[in-house]
Amino acid sequence: MYHATAFYYVWQADQAYKEGLFQEAIRKYNHAVNLYPEHYKAHYNLGNIYVVYEDYNSAVSSYEKALMANPDYLNARINLGIVLTQQILDIDRGINEYKKAINSKPFVINVPFIFNNKHHIWHSKAIAYYNLGLAYKSKSLLYKPDSMFVKECLKQAAQYYRNSIKIEPNNYETHYNLALTMQLLGVYSESLEEYCKAISLEPLNYESHYNLAILLRQRFLYQESLKELEKAGLLIDSRGDYFKTAYIYQMLNDINQRAIAKRSVQYEYITEKIGESPAKNYNITYLNGRVVLTENLDKAIMENMKTCPVCKTVTPTK
């Protein structure tokens, strides 16, 4: 009898949750868990609502109750880790929760053509690996930059990012953070490769272009750095962020001066043979300092943004 009433309260709370009526949802979920404390999804949703209200201690308590009822509930375990590391700032405890998520063995349900939770389990573990990387990167900030402990934390972060990529190879954020971590460790070849992969996945995110430009500048590849910084400037300018745009163009000027000092500028004269009567109407765009003809303007811009100035290739996105 109590279980039936509890499930009814959960149903009402779910409807209120979907409609954004959070206070009503909290009241109904609490009625439900008072009648049936083992209803882990009710505790989980309560935790999510408390996060919205920035009541992080209550969120932690709700996630913990959900896990007491179902220790293999990956969503609750990962959300608990996120709140602990990013809000409560109990990084070690959060790391422990992520590791429990990775090592857990939820029951796989496979009903052919109807339901299979295996993909969800692996996706959740990829998220846990990624967040472990973020946690170790955050932990590295607690110590002096030149300490051995910082390097060990960054190495741990890099390995967890790689583990996440093995499961989900086309995640921009993971490639970007791995590239940044390897740049901090001074492993420039892997950092370059990961920035290129991140750019191929999401070419309109300026951060990868900007960080790649800084990396290329560190390696004295000024011309290549200029190309990436120009892309970063174009993307930031399109967002209307005046201060970041101004800073990037200051960097452009600095790198340009270094490039001139390193070697004299070589001019390339390119002529394109165009028929007297073009068969098609072409769009034009300005790419890498040249006016080019293209049948598809958007495609040209995207391909240009994906192109790594060092690799000279575009990595196909699957």
Number of strands: 4
Helix content: 55-70%
Distance from N terminus to C terminus (CA atoms, Å) equals: 52 Å
Q: For the report, how would you describe the main beta sheet?
A: 2 strands, antiparallel
CATH topology: Serine Threonine Protein Phosphatase 5, Tetratricopeptide repeat
| Derived structural class | mainly alpha
Question: Beta-strand level of the residues, as a percent range?
Answer: under 5%
Topology as H/E string? HHHHHHEEHHHHHHHEEH
Mean pLDDT figure: 80
Helices, by number, come to 14
CATH architecture label? Alpha Horseshoe
How many domain regions?
Answer: 1
- Tell me the name of the CATH homologous superfamily: Tetratricopeptide repeat domain
Seen as an oligomer or otherwise, the chain set is: single chain
Q: Quickly name the level 1 CATH class.
A: Mainly Alpha
How would you describe the shape? Answer: elongated
Q: What ranges have pLDDT less than 50 throughout 5 or more consecutive residues?
A: 264-297, 313-318
Radius of gyration: 25 Å
Strand order of the largest sheet: 1-2
